[in-house]
From TrEMBL:
This is DNA 3'-5' helicase. Residues 10-290 form the UvrD-like helicase ATP-binding domain. InterPro entries: DExx_box_DNA_helicase_dom_sf (IPR013986), DNA_helicase_UvrD-like_C (IPR014017), DNA_helicase_UvrD/REP (IPR000212), P-loop_NTPase (IPR027417), UvrD-like_ATP-bd (IPR014016). Gene3D superfamilies: 1.10.10.160, 3.30.160.800, P-loop containing nucleotide triphosphate hydrolases (3.40.50.300), PCRA, domain 4 (1.10.486.10). Keywords: ATP-binding, DNA-binding, Helicase, Hydrolase, Isomerase, Nucleotide-binding. It is an enzyme of class 5 (isomerase). Residues 291-656 form the UvrD-like helicase C-terminal domain. It catalyses: Couples ATP hydrolysis with the unwinding of duplex DNA by translocating in the 3'-5' direction; ATP + H2O = ADP + phosphate + H(+).
Amino acid sequence: GAQANADYLSGLNAAQREAVETLDGPVLMLAGAGTGKTKALTARIAHLMSTGRARPNEILAVTFTNKAAREMKTRVEGITAGEGAGMQWLGTFHAICVKMLRRHAELVGLKSNFTILDTDDQIRLLKQVISAANIDEKRWPARQLAGIIDGWKNRALTPAQLGKSDGAAFNDRGVQLYAQYQERLKALNAADFGDLLLHMVTIFQTHPDLLEQYRRWLRYILVDEYQDTNVAQYLWLRLLAGGHRNICCVGDDDQSIYGWRGAEVGNILRFEKDFPGAKVVRLEQNYRSTPHILAAASSVIAGNKDRLGKELWTDAEDGEKVRLIGHWDGEEEARWVGEEIEAMVSGTSKYAKNRRNPRSKSIEQEFERLAKAGKLRGAATPEQLFGILKAQNSPFAEFKTRKLMWELTERRENDLPLAPAFQKFSEEEIAIMVRASHQMRSFEDRFLSIGLPYRVIGGPRFYERMEIRDAMAYFRVVISPDDDLAFERIVNVPKRGVGDKAMQGIQVIARQNGVSLKEAARIAADEGVLKGKARTGVAELIAALDRWSSMAVQQIRFPGVDDEDEVIEAEGQRSELSHIELAEKILDESGYTTMWQNDKTPEAPGRLENLKELVKALEQFENLGGFLEHVSLIMDNESEEHGAKVTIMTLHGAKGLEFPVVFLPGWEEGLFPSQRSMDESGLKGLEEERRLAYVGITRAEEVCTISFAANRRVYGQWQSQLASRFVDELPVDHVEVLTPPGLYGSQTRGMFGGGMSASFEEKVSRADAYNSPGWRRMQERSGQRGMAQPKEGRHVVIDATATSSFTEGERVFHVKFGYGEVMEIEGDKLTIEFDHSGPKKLVASFVKPANK
Ligand code: ATP
Ligand code: MG
């Protein structure tokens, strides 16, 4: 290739350089987050090529995600003047193994065009295998068997390698079912994900000649995120590296977060034993984050017993402390994050105003750097480069270049001189990282309604998800019976025996009579055009739709007949069958919820969770119609595809990435750490959650904000939440506790005092936030109302549900009914006279004190 640019070496520190330049023999880079492992790995690839050690197709480079592979390829291309494009063997374990297996499929009884089963297909096939073996699928669910088999495959175990005792589950027939499943796969010319590696390991173990060939072809092996490899991946790597031993692995034991998927952090710790004489390089300088952020991450991860322990340092300027804030509930949290981001991107936030990025350069320096990297595209000045990029609508994705473009536009438009520091943040520089994907909905909703562009990584956006579209289609038909598209979507979901033919019949009737599909379906059922199951199914659906529609219209009820515990409605007001209850009824009676409850695929629980989120979203609206209108408007607004966007993703998906601004919401017991990890015996699960916290904090470059809410709806029920134990583990000196805005009153006290250990609280109470006038005001208020009660020793209930927390005559606020005044208190029930909807009796925990 062309003379490569050796600049990639001068940008490295001594330890990195050593790792890059030690081309032969095994090398292990074991180092903390942001120390430049990935950067060094990329430089190593460039170095292999530019020294002529290896051609692009002789290098095997494994990344953890396809996205990471694309990024690495782009970077290598940048360094090697395009030569990296020839890298055929750069990708994830799966991607690389598929490529290999297609060539040698016949060795495991497959044809080269084998299909790869997704999880749904896998479960369906297992169901067949289970029922063919006369096993009751209800007692021994296919999903469970899938988990067991995946576990075996992750450990590279074939049925033949397993003993009888290994099949303890499934009436001791696990291994036998596994063997039958593998036979079925072969007959179908198919492989599941686990097979890709398992087959390749088997092939290499049984065909030494072939393995030899690959060892000659793939002379250099590089692996990123090595701490998350499972046994099968490990064996595959060890087989391939066995001859030449030119293998370079990089990783961080503190970032091992896929144990639940069979990853074994032991692989990285065993490297020196597997490859005696390996050069071990340790990197300790972090180039990503400010000292405060780094200190926070180090303090949290120090809570883990099972770790090697590494020191990280940085010479970056102090920057901002990690920010910690508690909110009333998840919606408030999303609202606050939305406002913060708006302030950051518009430049009104103090963080934007104070922004001094220690790594930012002047435009001239940046231009210089791009010139060295050969990326000027013929431009002679920054202005020209900008013009070219703009004209080409360049997908030139490199971060610094986007900054450059931004700076140039900004400066040009405001006629300002070029300045060395960037001030405002761009949406592109901001990410929200959640523990569980159902947390995304409240952020998406908020961002949609304030018009903040965002993207969701690792899944479709909330309102584009299948189950959400289905549910909304039901609502649409209930509100507008003529909505044919919506009707078509739901008429056979869940299955009602309405196949293509039946649907065609209904469409013909609709056209002939000029009526909606719903009316046509009614006619088809009444007049016997539909037969059998389809007929009863459709008739029942139409009757139910009619019933729901009338409920949506009337919703009138009269007082005096109510049970005392129910909300008392004033005369002429709408009935207590709120639109929320109606929505729940529709999802229930239509069989839609049941359909997902009976579904045993791994996605089903998530879908149910999303449906609950949908119902929750309704709370902010008066009725179903208003909600549907809102969604259609915001979805329409969001057509613009290009441009800077805020990223919403899970913590698991964030590995290896970095953003100047990171929000980490939902740090609450049961959510993060997850309930499952808390229920587990032993510390394994909790330690993995803590590593996830470490991964989250270390993604942030400049501003890191952690938040938690006092109340959250979990499985449709409001719950008082305790702040996460990880909040306790933050180092006080590096944390700024923010006073939440607005409405909260006494609960604020509970949030800060309640969520944290006594010592933390004591330390925090010296923090500035506690001396602010707003804070003192709230403390006074909480003093009047009495403290929250301790629960489970260390923690204190955040939400004061105690009877004493409200007084008669107090002004209060309820999410649905708005403002009102407490008339009467009985135990935890309040009778409230609402300003707009009259008197109601409610459970106290659903009401917050109003502040006027
Ligand atoms: P993680 O463990 O999170 O994957 P990592 O160790 O792979 O982190 P990188 O992503 O390679 O770290 O680097 C982190 C940041 O530091 C990047 O922005 C990178 O460009 C920068 N960086 C790495 N090494 C250096 C260096 N020697 N000089 C300046 N910046 C560096
Ligand atoms: Mg990395």
